[in-house]
Specification:
This protein has 292 residues and is of the alpha/beta class. It is 29% helix and 22% strand. The protein has eight helices and twelve strands. The radius of gyration is 19 Å and the shape is globular.
Length: 292
């Protein structure tokens, strides 16, 4: 029974830069907020994801490792908290990369007038940016995979599926065996699924484990997990339990909204963003109904 499930450990309260391995660092947003990669190369550094709201903290920490501006910016998906500072880096000479779907989704949110407004009240304030911050989509796009050789490093950007967003992509460094998962994985942090598809998300985690023999995985949110792929197992278990409990609730209540109210995840109350459970249950219920 869910009420007797073992309480999952709380995440570490880390914030700031953490070393992944030689020349590879991650900026942990803290409290479950967004994580960003920083990879040092023989040329300029490579940044993986970004957010204008934490630019000052990120750059301050980055200057401890390098005085060079970014040479490349790699986007794992389109969300504001992963792409909103693209323009800052590209104006300083960086080239940005992302899947074509991410570019399309950024334009969709811009055309709908929600690019900045949707972030109001969800963390660092954005009111002063409304009407002033344009999108800066990836300059180089691809559909399935692109291999980037830069500064003695090899990056593979690989499109996975429509899971968290339509354009979920990972950044794989095969030599170092480091995987930047974007929001396909979070570490002891409840996911967000406003635009995604849970029916694709669960099998996508199996794909990550089969395809990438990672020594280190950098999640989109939460602290840096221990070495290896256990984080994938934790995420899969969470989503599988959410699916099972939501399906059971739908057998009692026909409407997704009513069913979602019955879903509880008590063993995950210590994880960051536990308030997301009702929204995730509602989205899961809608996805399950759609599948039928």
């Amino acid at each position: 029974m869910a009420s007797h499930a073992k309480i999952m450990p709380a995440p570490a309260k880390t914030r700031g830069f953490v070393k992944v391995t030689d020349g590879i660092h991650v900026f942990i947003g803290g409290g479950g907020t967004t994580d960003f990669g920083l990879v040092l190369t023989d040329d300029k550094p490579v940044i993986i994801d970004n957010d204008i709201r934490v630019r000052e903290d990120f750059l301050k920490g980055m200057r401890r490792f390098t005085r060079k501006d970014a040479g490349l910016v790699l986007n794992t998906h389109h969300n504001f908290d992963h792409t909103s500072d693209n323009g800052y880096y590209t104006k300083r000479g960086a080239v940005s990369f992302g899947v074509e779907l991410a570019k399309q989704e950024m334009r969709r949110e811009w055309d709908a007038g929600i690019w900045v407004k949707q972030m109001a009240g969800r963390g660092p304030r954005v009111d002063h940016l409304i009407g002033k911050l344009d999108i800066s989509p990836p300059m180089v796009t691809f559909e399935d995979q692109i291999d980037i050789h830069y500064g003695g490093r090899h990056f593979q950007m690989i499109y996975i599926d429509h899971c968290h967003t339509k354009g979920d992509t990972v950044v794989w460094m095969p030599k170092e065996k480091v995987l930047f998962s974007g929001d396909l994985l979070t570490y002891r942090t409840h996911p967000v699924n406003r635009l995604g598809n849970f029916m694709n998300w669960i099998p996508a985690l199996d794909l990550l484990k089969r395809k990438f023999p990672a020594k280190h995985i950098v999640p989109g949110h939460g602290p840096l997990p221990p070495r290896g792929t256990k984080i994938i197992d934790e995420n899969k278990t969470f989503l599988a339990r959410l699916k099972t409990r939501t399906a059971a609730a739908l057998r009692k209540e026909r409407s997704p909204a009513s069913a979602a109210k019955l879903v509880q995840m008590p063993e995950y109350t210590r994880w960051f963003r536990a308030q997301n459970v009702p929204n995730n249950a509602l989205k899961m219920a809608k996805d399950l109904k759609k599948k039928r």
